[in-house]
Design brief:
Strand order of the largest sheet: 1-2-4-3
Shape: globular
Oligomer: single chain
Helix content: 40-55%
Largest sheet: 4 strands, mixed
Radius of gyration: 15 Å
Number of strands: 4
Number of helices: 5
Structural class: alpha/beta
Strand content: 15-25%
Distance between the termini: 26 Å
Length: 159
């Protein structure tokens, strides 16, 4: 599983290696093809605002955006690489400055908020959405379950 993290935000008070490990954990738990590739980019507020306006037609910055690459992506994988070649899942774009503000409101640290947002973005790449109440409940339940499993596996004890 290849996870590429590019920090173009200027924010350095979080662990990029741990963020990549979380992304790999989520992809593994979701049974994504082990040959899949994911890009996680952290950007500053101006860049996120531009992306939010351009792709979502909404003003101001947002916390996370997900840009799927392979429309034919199937989350299950086979044991044979010949049957299931490398898949470019897409890009998850995070804004640490927005995450920091949300973390304060939520009562936890910015790194925890980035983990929540990264997991959320990956779930979007895997086809989950929250436009309807039932979809929202399913996505949030899965997101919380993944994060709880990560906390146990990583020994963080965060909640």
């Amino acid at each position: 599983m290849a996870v590429f993290v590019a920090n173009e935000s200027g924010v350095t008070d979080f662990d990029e290696v741990t963020l990549a490990a979380l992304a790999r954990f989520v992809l593994d738990t979701m049974k994504v093809n082990p040959l899949a590739e994911l890009s996680v980019m952290l950007v500053e507020i101006d860049a996120m605002t531009d992306l939010h306006v351009r792709y979502m037609a909404e003003e101001g910055p947002t916390d996370v955006l997900a840009f799927p690459q392979d429309e034919a992506f199937e989350p299950s994988w086979s044991e044979s690489p010949e049957e299931d070649p490398t898949t470019l899942l897409g890009d998850v774009v995070l804004c640490p400055e927005v995450a920091r503000r949300q973390a304060v409101q939520a009562g936890h640290g910015m790194e925890r908020e980035l983990h929540i947002l990264c997991t959320h973005g990956i779930l979007h790449l895997l086809g989950y959405d929250h436009a309807e109440p039932e979809e929202e409940r399913e996505m949030w339940k899965l997101q919380n379950s993944l994060l709880a499993s990560w906390d146990t596996a990583a020994g963080t004890g965060a909640s």
